[in-house]
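Lab notebook, bench 4. Still working through the backlog of constructs that have no structural model yet. Next entry is a single chain of 241 residues. Request: give me the structure tokens for it.
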Amino acid sequence: MAVSGPERAPVFKARNLVKTYSWGEVTVHALRGVDLDLYEHEIVVLLGPSGSGKTTLLNILGGLDSASSGEVFYREHNLVTSDEDVLTRFRREHVGFVFQYYNLIASLTALENIRLVTEISSSPMKPEDALDLVGMKALADRFPSQLSGGEQQRVSIARAIAKRPDILLCDEPTGALDYETGRKVLEAIQKIHSELGTLVVIITHNAAIAGMADRVIRIENGRIGEIRIQPERLPLDEIRW
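Model written out:
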């Protein structure tokens, strides 16, 4: 059965999604028949331990990896049958990625890191406006080495949303950060969701972060386990980890 959600067309629809990796005679089953719908204007937390398949699922949704079998639709487009040119356009035009490690270019300033994205996007926001959304406009001329971990993560979020993506996919965005710094990063993600209406998907092993979500989907051993629809999001100052 697919994950239940709001009565509107899903942004993503996955059906019987399977992913296996093979090394010689060894086969690893990363996803084992996942059915999943994700909707506009949601914050969804995919919760699960390391090795549960949540990063594999996120990468397939974002067009960074391919499924072994099954279907994944972004709106009416089947990502499983799309060639690499189509997937490249999909990533460029519709998806923003935020990773645990910030992947900023060390030789470029914060502003220049964001310009790399806006120069190849069809209708981007101004790089300065993207930095302002995450509270980093005053540090636009600093290089990554001159920024704290949390500041670098906020720049990476600004880079991800500068092209105005439909979807923001976040892989352990606070995993390398302390509580106070992580809270600032989550505040930036919440603000972007509120102002741009972006579908936000956050994967984490940290159950406390689930309080900020509309829906919490637990992944265990490559399968969808518990699904929890939350009546309201908790304020971030009430979430501790």
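Notes after review: Confidence is low (pLDDT under 50) at residues 1-6. The helical segments are 54-61, 84-94, 110-118, 127-133, 149-161, 179-196. Flag for follow-up if needed.
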